[in-house]
Design a protein that fits this description.
This protein is an all-alpha fold. It has a domain of about 40 residues. The protein is about 65% helix and about 0% strand. The protein contains three helices and no strands.
């Protein structure tokens, strides 16, 4: 799974630019482009479930992030 999403403290900051800026430091190798962004959607899905339980006030922000990343890979 992609551990570099731990560098993003809030869904508002989960942008392509943010992710692309931490990729070199994480040395993810073959991960790039669409594959990378598809994995972000997987992690976002898990965060949506966790958010409902632990931070329900952030759920709307995560839904916006979900829509943003779905547009990225479509």
């Amino acid at each position: 799974m992609i551990y570099y999403m731990h560098f993003v403290p809030s869904p508002n900051e989960l942008t392509k630019e943010t992710i692309d800026s931490v990729i070199p430091a994480m040395k993810v190798g073959a991960y790039s482009g669409r594959v990378l962004y598809e994995e972000i959607l997987i992690v976002l899905f898990m965060r949506l479930a966790t958010c409902l339980r632990h931070h329900p006030e952030d759920f709307e922000e995560y839904i916006h992030a979900w829509s943003y990343w779905k547009r990225m890979i479509m």
